[in-house]
Design a protein that fits this description.
The structure is a homodimer of 108-residue chains. The first copy, chain A, has one domain: Arc Repressor Mutant, subunit A (Orthogonal Bundle). Chain A has five helices and two strands. Chain A is globular. By secondary structure, chain A is mainly alpha-helical. Helix content of chain A is 50%, strand content 11%. Chains A and B meet through helix 1 and helix 5 of A and helix 1 and helix 5 of B. The structure holds a DNA duplex (30 and 30 nucleotides).
Chain lengths: 108, 108
DNA sequence: CCCTTTGTACGAACATCATCGTACTACCCG
DNA sequence: CGGGTAGTACGATGATGTTCGTACAAAGGG
């Protein structure tokens, strides 16, 4: 079974995490995962980019520590590393998720 | 008196804010301002970059809505737009500031 | 009025990043 | 084993971003 490298929480870098979340496509992925869309193959997200670009974005998220990727056959099950992020940077992910939802809403 | 353009809170974009804060130098500026170093000239921050690069970073922060810049003679007084940020993206700035402090600490 | 201080404008050099297409690998199912 | 599915590797390309140096502008003090 193939496995993928995941950083441990004490190696999370704010620099890397913010750069990862600065990209709209990667923020879209994280938001979907937060909305309960765990356990979906990468390509089933229907992202508006090609296959290799999709691979690239998921890897950036994994290497930043934001998501966990586990092989299931030829597919990959993705999930948010909510607890690990909370232990290293408490409140960061929830705040960014809430801001992302507010950002896509019509301005009041 | 010279004045500078500042976006209003309803025009703040999460994209722009996260990109701005992804840069370590700009995060350094924001952290210093949060630590009470308001009302200081740009160059007095002693950033490890040249003059024109410094101008560039401060402008990125201003155009993202993160700081306010007001001329005072030939110098510029900088301050964090804490209230405006809180109204548009509640909790975002405090979470990032806390994470930034935690990031620079030795790993426990 | 000259000089200093503070910041800006401009252009160049360099690095990084997002994107793509094509070729390839790994796994599963019949 | 053969075919299909999901993802990776690689190289290229174009856009964006950081950095700098130099020349310039605006404000204030002697």
């Amino acid at each position: 079974m193939r496995t993928l490298e995941h950083p441990s929480p004490e190696n999370f870098r704010l620099d890397t995490i913010l750069s990862a979340l600065a990209d709209p496509i990667r923020r879209m992925i994280v938001c979907r995962l937060a909305d309960g869309q765990h356990k979906q193959a990468c390509l089933s997200f229907g992202l508006p980019v090609g296959k290799s670009t999709s691979t690239h974005h998921f890897r950036v998220l994994r290497e930043a520590g934001l998501i966990e990727q586990r092989y299931q056959g030829t597919a990959i099950l993705n999930s948010l590393r909510t607890a690990d992020l909370e232990s290293r940077f408490p409140g960061l992910l929830p705040a960014i998720l809430a801001s992302a939802r507010r950002d896509s809403e019509p301005v009041v």
